[in-house]
Amino acid sequence: MCHTIKTLAKNGMGKLSCCDTCQVFFLQFNNLFIEFTDKELATFQEYLTNMDVEYWECKNQCKVMKRRIPITTLQKNLVLMFNQQEFAALKDLVFRNTTKPDHTLSISEIDHLFILN
User: Fold this and answer.
1) What does the pLDDT average to over 17-21?
2) 92 by DSSP, 3-state: which?
3) Domain range annotation of the chain
4) Rounded to an integer, what distance in angstroms lies between the CA atom of residue 82 and that of residue 93?
5) Percentages helix, strand, coil for the chain, rounded to the nearest 5?
């Protein structure tokens, strides 16, 4: 059976793809890779929509942490942490708010430290 993977959204931190054959969504975000069914993706979208970013930024302000916005997982000792920029980029992917998912990203669109020797 031939699988066709289509890119739905892409930005400098990752991309959201879908397999037309399996109806599975693939979220690649920095070093994370998550597979979703249609229902799971909708639930994740709702979770992100209801996330109070300002609350977490304020609550964790005293802590020496670069990333203060948590996304909990079913594994009780695993929490995914994001800063505001990463969280916004994640939401852009999940809600497909990126432009031109098929175009090649330029170096300036990729948010990573590049060291040119």
Assistant:
1) 93
2) helix
3) 5-95
4) 14
5) 30, 25, 45
